[in-house]
Structures
1.
Amino acid sequence: MNSITQGLSSLKYQPLPISHHHPLPPTTATATATATRQTFALSLKTRPNSIPHHQTHLPKTRPDDGIPADLVKTLAKFKSRHNFIRVLEVARSADHPFAGARLLLLDAPGNIHSISFLFKTLTQTYFDVFATLPPLLPPGPIAILGFGAGSAARSILELHPDSVVHGWELDPVVISVAREYFGLSRIEKQHPNRIYICIGNAFDAEIEGSYSGLLVDLFSKGCLVPELRDPATWEKMRRRLRRGGRIMVNVGGSCVEAEDGRDGREIMDETLRALNRVFPGEVSVLSLGNGTDDSSVALTGGLPDVEAWKKALPKPLRFYADMWRPFNG
C-alpha cells in the first residue's frame, strides 16, 4: 500500500454531491426521485449546454442532471494538511458529459478541481477556455496558480507545442495524487523541459517580470480566495508579467455557493472590480451558463484581434474567441 492510500480502508465512502471547482451543498448525499436509484447531483459553473450551437458533439445531458451513484467509483479518499481529497472515476457507460472521467474533489463542499479523460484532452469546461490563452502571449513561461491535478496544463502542453508551464500548488499531496491518478507523471516525462511544478503559496513568490501569462484558479472553502478581491493582489501579479503579458482568471459566478453563504455573483463582481482597478478599461469577461446559474472567466490586456486569435487556435477552441465582452463594472 503506497503513502497516498494508506489508511483509506478505514474511511467508509459517503456519496457526495459534486460541483465543478465551485461548492456543492454541504450535505453528505443527494438522492433524486428517479425510481430508487441514488445519484450524484452536479452543479457546474461551466455548462456544456451553454456552448454555442456551432460547437459539435454536445453531450445529451447537463452536468447537473446527476450521475447514478453506482456508476461513480471512489479511487481515493483522505485528508491532507490542506485538503479533504477525493478521487472519483465516472463509468464510461454513464449518460453524462463526465462519462469516463476522473475527478479531483477538494475540501468539504466537494469542489471538483480537476477533470481528466483518458482518450481526450478537452473537457467542455472552463479549462478549455484557459487553453485559448497562449496565442495572445509574448514568449515566456505561463504560470498556473492553483494547479490542482493539471487539467489546464495538460491542455496547454498538448495543444500548444511551444508553451512552457509553471504550475503552482499549495498542497504537495495534491501533486502526488495528480501523478498517481491523473497522469501527471506521464505528462512530466513527455515534456521534461516544458512543465515545472512549484510547491508553495503562489502569493508569496517574488518572481517579477518572469511570466508571459498567468492562469489564476484559486478557490478555498467553496469560493474564490479573498485575496483576489484586493487590488493589491492584482498589482503584485501585474508585476510578475513580462511586457505584453496577460492574466486569465476563473472568477466564478452565481452558481457558486460559498461555505459562509455569500452569493457567488457578489464575490465575482468584487473580484472583477478589484481586477479592473489595476487594469482599468482592459478587462474582458467571458460568461458561461445562463443568467441564473452562470460563471465567468476574465482576461486582462483588452480585447484582442479576434480573427487573428481564432486562426492561431485549434479548431475546437475557436468559438471561445467570439464570446468575450468588455467589463463594464
2.
Amino acid sequence: MDDFNPNTTIGALEGGIIVTNLLFGTFTMQVHIYYRKFPHDYWPLKTLVAVVWLLELAHTLCIVHGLFVMTISYHGQIIGIPKSLIASFIFSGIAGPIVQAFFITRVAKCFDKPYLAILCWTLTFFHLLSNVLMSVGSFTTQTVFLFEARWQWVVMTGLIDEACIDLLTAMSLCYFLVKSRRHSTHKKTIRLLDRLIAMTIPTGLITSLMAISNVICFLTMPDNLVWMALMICQVNLFSNSMLASLNGRSMLRHDQERDTTVPGNSLSNSLIFDRNSVELTTRINLGSFLTSEVSDAESASNPMAST
C-alpha cells in the first residue's frame, strides 16, 4: 500500500472498536434483563444466551488488546495482524452463525416451511466454514492488506453469505406474518401479529443493512479498513437483536394476559387463519415468541392448540 492513511485504517478500527464496546455494554444489560424477566425459560435457551455472552466478552477483550498492539506496539502502523485480533475473528465467527441459527430456528418453528429453514441452515454452515478459513488465513498472513488480497474470495463469500441469510430470515418472517394478518378476521390476532411485525422489522432491517453495507465497503474501498470495522461491530448487532427479540416477549405476554379473558380461548400457541370459507387454512406456531411459562400454561388449558 503506497499511501498509508491512518484515518481510514487505524482510525476506522478505533471507531469500530469503540462502537463494539458500547454495543457489548448494551448486550450485557439486555442479558441481565433477560435472566431477571424470564427465569423459567427452557434451559437450552438460557444456556444459548450465556454462551453468546461469553463469546461476545472474549471478542471484546481480544479486539481491545488488538487495538492496543496496533496503536502502541506497532506505533500506529499496519505492519502485522495481532494474534488477539485474529482470535476475536474466531469468537465472532462462532457467535454470528449461532445467532443466525437462532433466528432460522424461530422461523422454522413459527411456520411450516422446512425448505426455507434447510436453505438458511445450509448458508449458515458455509458462513461458519468461511469464518474458519478466514481465521486460518489470518494466522498465515503477515499484514491485513496482504490478507485482504490473498483471501479476498473467502472474505467476499462470507460477507455475501451473511447478508443473504439476514435478508432471507427477516424478509421471510415479515412476509408470512403480513400474509397471515391479511387472512385474519380476529382483532386480537391482528393486534398480536402487528406487535410481531413491529418487533421483526427493526431488528431484521438493522442487521441486513449492516451486512449489505459491509459488502459494499469491501468492494468499493479495498485500500482501507472500514469493512473490517463494520465486521467487528456486526456480530454485536446480531447479539443485541437476538436479546431484543427475547426480551420483547414481555410485551407479547402483556397483550396475551390482557386479551385472553375467556377460559380455554388461547391465541398464542397456535393461530388458525381462514384463507377462504372452504377448508384451506394456515397454521402458525407462535410459541417461540412467547415466554415458556405462558406457552406451557396455555398448552395445558387448550390441548388442541399444539396439535
3.
Amino acid sequence: MDGVGVTADGFGLRGPRGWAFRDVAVDAEPGSLIAIEGPSGSGRTSLLLALTGRMKAGEGTATVGGARLPKQLTAVRRIAALAHVPGVTDLEPALTVGEHLRERALLQRRFGGSLRDLLRPRAVRTAEAELRIGAALDAAGLDREALPKGSRTAVRDLERVEALRLSVALALVGRPRLLGVDDVDLKLTQAEQAEVWALLGSLAEAGTTVLAVCAEAPEGAVTVTTGADAVPSGERPAGPGDDRRAGPRVEQRPGPQDDRRAGPEDEQRAGPHGGQEAGAAAEAGPDAAPEVRPEKEEESDALTETRRA
C-alpha cells in the first residue's frame, strides 16, 4: 500500500482549559516514519488523532495525502487507521486473538468495502478475509502458531509487545495508507522498544506512512516535538522558579471587576479572617497568576469530546 505525505503549518487544537498542542509544523514524504515526541500530557495523542482525522484542529492547516485538515476529516479517516490508542482501540482481554481478527475482518467487509463486495459469494468473501488477515499478521510480525494457545490465546495472556503487534495487525486489515500508533515505548524495555521501532520502520519501508507517539524519537525518524519547547514563547509563564509541567499555558484574561479593591461588604462576607485574604487577592489585581490545571486533563477533555461527537 502506498503511503501519503503529511504536512502541517501552524497546526493547533484548543480544548476547554487551554491548548492541547499549538504551532505544529510537519513536512514528511510518503512512506515516512514520523515520531511525535514529547512527555506525557503534552498533547501527543491529540496531535496523532488530529492528523488521522479523528479530532478537529482549530488553528492552522494540514494536508494528508491531498486532503486538507480540518475541513476534510472524512477523507483522511478513509485512508488512516489507528493502533494501540488507549480508549479508542483497546483490545478486549477476555477475547482471543482469533476472535479479534475475525471481528475486524467482518467490520472491514461491512463498512470498508463496496456494495459489490457484499454481494460476492460467501466462500469468496471468506477467502478474501483470510488473505487480509494473513497479510496483516505477516506485516505486524505476529505468528499465531508461536502463541501459547495459537489463535485461541486470550489477549490477557499476551506479552506487551505481542499485544501491540496484534493491535497493529488489526489496523492493517483495512490496508491503510497512514497508520497511527500511540505510546509505542510505554512500559517497554530498551530491547522491546528497539523491536517495536524495527517493526514500524519495516512498515514505513514497505510504503505505509507511520505516525508514532513516543517519549524519545529514534534516529532517522521525522521528529515532531510537543510540549513546552514547541509552544511560542508568549504562551509560557516566565520566571526561573516556575514549577510547571511541560505543555502550553491556559490563558486567562482579567475580568472587568478584577481591579476593584475589597470593601467593608467584602470583609463582612469573608468573616473575621477572610478580610485580609480578600484584600490581598484584590491588591494582586489582574496580574495574579491563575490556577493552571495539568495539560493531561486538557488532552483528556479534548479526547472525551471527540468520542462523544
